[in-house]
Amino acid sequence: MYGKELSEEVRSYQKTGEGWEELRNRIVLFIYGWGLKKRNLGEDGAADFLLSFLPRIKSLVRNYADENCPFEHYVKVCLEWHMVKFHTDRHREEKKEELYWQIEGKRESLLLAQTAPPYPRTDGRRGCSLPALLQEPRFKRHLLAYLLYHVEYVTPDLIDPFARFLGMPRDELHSRLARAEAFLGPKREKREAMREKR
Q1: pTM to 2 decimals?
Q2: Could you report the per-residue pLDDT of 60-69, keeping only the tens digit for each?
Q3: How far apart are the C-alpha atoms of 142 and 111, rounded to whole Å?
Q4: 164 with 134: CB under 8 angstroms?
Q5: Residue 49's closest CA among 94, 10, 84?
Q6: Residues 173, 123: contact at Cβ < 8 Å?
Q7: Residue 112: is its pLDDT beyond 60?
Q8: Burial state string for 79-111 with b = 16 or more CB within 10 A and e = fewer than 16
Q9: Residue 155, by phi and psi: left (phi above 0), alpha (psi -120 to 50) or beta?
Q10: For tag attachment on the chain, is the N or C end more exposed, with fewer CB atoms within 10 Å?
């Protein structure tokens, strides 16, 4: 289904600029099928991996030039490299969620809405109003989790504006940041000590 035939489709698109929708759909199916074969992903993980890779598809087609290497092999190499970043980002998000749940004492979704809610825009155009989106509770939870996870970069002058934006007293945000530092500080110091020994 792929191999030489897919490579020829890519070269045809490069020359004519036609047939993009069909070509993209075939590449998407190929990437999703590749992800399903990875034992540590599963169906949901393969879908997440595909979504994270989608923005790169057009540049892959545009940059493919090796006639001696089938397009699917070229894509596989790119997928393997992207998989490393995908797992690193996923692990970081899981650690961020774990810290948030520990500090907050409750398990709330930190995922932002996949589709923009129908907030009215102030400029007359269709779509989502950014100020309204920023007021979403899930956005604020996501921001709080980010601040807790990166507490070492939250300087004292940032606490007041972030507390106002999150709608919580300054002392409350300061207390949560202190608890996050107490949890993450020793781990960070241990990592730095190991780094110095190398």
Answers
A1: 0.51
A2: 999 898 777 8
A3: 7
A4: no
A5: 84
A6: no
A7: no
A8: beeebeebeeeeeeeeebbebbeebeeeeeebe
A9: beta
A10: C
